[in-house]
Each structure stands twice: as C-alpha cells, then as structure tokens.
UniProtKB/TrEMBL annotation:
Gene3D superfamilies: LmbE-like. One of its GO terms (molecular function) is hydrolase activity, acting on carbon-nitrogen (but not peptide) bonds, in linear amides. The keyword DNA-binding does not apply. This is LmbE family protein. The keyword NAD does not apply. Pfam families: PIG-L. InterPro entries: GlcNAc_PI_deacetylase-related (IPR003737), LmbE-like_dom_sf (IPR024078). It comes from Knoellia subterranea KCTC 19937.
C-alpha cells in the first residue's frame, strides 16, 4: 500500500503496556488477525494470555461436539504457541448458545482480576464486522459482556463473591475491540503476516471442515490485515490490525 486516501489516518496504537488479556468466544477467533499483533507483542517481551468462553464444540459439522471440544481446545493451544502464548484458558459456556448475562460478565471479570492485564482485547460487538459481514451471536454477546466486565473487574461491590474467592478488584488501563466498523487505532503487523497465517493453520480439523470455496489461511489472514492497513491509511503500512480503543484511565 504505497498511497493513502483522503480519509483521516488512524492513530498508531501505543505499546506502553506490559500485559494483555484476549477475551473471545471461540477457538480461532483470535487467529483472524489479532494473532499478528500478539506475535509482535510477545516478541517484544509482553505477557499475553487468552480466555475463550467456549471450546468451540459446535464448530465442526462433521464432528460431534463431545469430540470436537477437545480437538478444538488442543488446536487453540497449538495456535497460541505459534505466536508465543502459553497461557490459554477456557470457560464453560456452550458454543453457539452464549448469552449476554450476569454470569458471563462475572466469568470475564474473574479472569481479568486473575490475570490483572494492562490491556484487554475482545471482538467488536456490533451487528456487522468491518467489511459488512454479519457478526455471529456468540461474538456479540462476549464482546458486550467483556466491555461491561472491564468495569465490573474494578468495582468490588458488583460481584462481591469474587473478592470472597480471592480476586481483588483490578482496573484495566485500556480496552480495545478488534474488527470494528469504526476503528480509532492500528497496529503495524507487516512483518508478522506469515506467523499469523501459521497460527490459523494450526486449526487443521476446523479448517478442513470448512466449505471448499472458503478462503484458506494463507489467503484470508493477509486479506484481513490488508483491510486493516486500508483503514489505517498510513503510507508504507501494508498490513495492520485495526482497533477501536477505549482508554479506561
């Protein structure tokens, strides 16, 4: 991307943080773009952990959920390792049936208090992804619950039972949404495209069950990151993760 449009450029996402928690609904959600930034951050010595609310057990049409859950959990751990992440935790919510609820907020707030991250990244909870595709129900529920759980994590009186469990309040400095229709910042990941592709390729069972005409990781990941670069609108940036950033304090 050698030229820029007349649209205003996004701000470069500052990297003055030490720890990150990625909160998503399913195995592979992080690998559709965010993993490129994760690779950059772990290489720089930052601590990144993952929290997935489901095990993705309903994601493979040819495999019963009782079998698919374990397969997809293993694939997520392998894909995380490719980008330098060793701490991957899973919730107990049912894939495809995640509902926005106090229980969902509590589970995310508990993980935030346990991990105590500077930055929380989740998926955008709008009805559509950037590019106009319809956003999936679990993504919307988790994104919105995570937005609220970031505030919940800092207030001891919203879920006082978490304090009883030993999880003191924690104030997240920055909340960011990946895949937004209206991004505010970008992460330049031009040198992390190949490792991001390799991370998504670890989801072998899931990818093999997708329709034949669905883009393969080597096509899809660069396409997503090129869209991020187009949104960034900065000369010389060829691949980027676009984020909608909320500064908490």
């Amino acid at each position: 991307m050698d030229s820029v449009s007349n649209a205003p450029a996004l701000e470069l996402f500052p990297e003055d943080f030490e720890s990150v928690l990625c909160v998503v609904a399913h195995p592979d959600d992080i690998e559709y773009g965010t993993a490129a930034a994760v690779a950059k951050w772990t290489e720089a010595g930052k601590t990144v952990t993952y929290f997935l609310l489901t095990r993705g057990e309903a994601g493979i049409d040819t495999m019963h959920p009782d079998e698919a859950g374990a397969v997809r959990e293993a694939e997520e751990r392998a894909s995380a390792a490719v980008v330098g992440v060793t701490e991957v935790d899973f919730g107990t919510h049912r894939d495809g049936n995640v509902e926005y609820s106090l229980a969902l907020r509590r589970d995310i707030a508990r993980e935030i208090r346990r991990r105590r991250p500077d930055l929380v990244i989740t998926g955008d909870y709008g009805n559509r992804f950037v590019g106009g595709m319809l956003n999936q129900a679990d993504h919307r529920a988790v994104g919105l619950a995570c937005a609220d759980a970031v505030a919940d994590a800092g207030n001891r009186w919203i879920f006082p039972e978490l304090v009883d469990e030993g999880f003191e309040p924690w104030h997240v400095k920055v909340l960011a949404f990946a895949g937004p229709m209206t991004p505010t910042h970008y992460v330049d990941v031009g040198d992390k495209v190949e490792v991001a592709v390799a991370s998504l390729e670890e989801h072998a069972a899931y990818n093999s069950a997708l329709p034949d005409d669905f883009p393969k990781p080597a096509q899809l990941v660069p396409m997503i990151l090129e869209m991020g670069a187009k949104a960034a609108n900065v000369e010389g940036v060829t691949h980027a993760l676009a984020l909608d950033v909320v500064n908490r304090r």
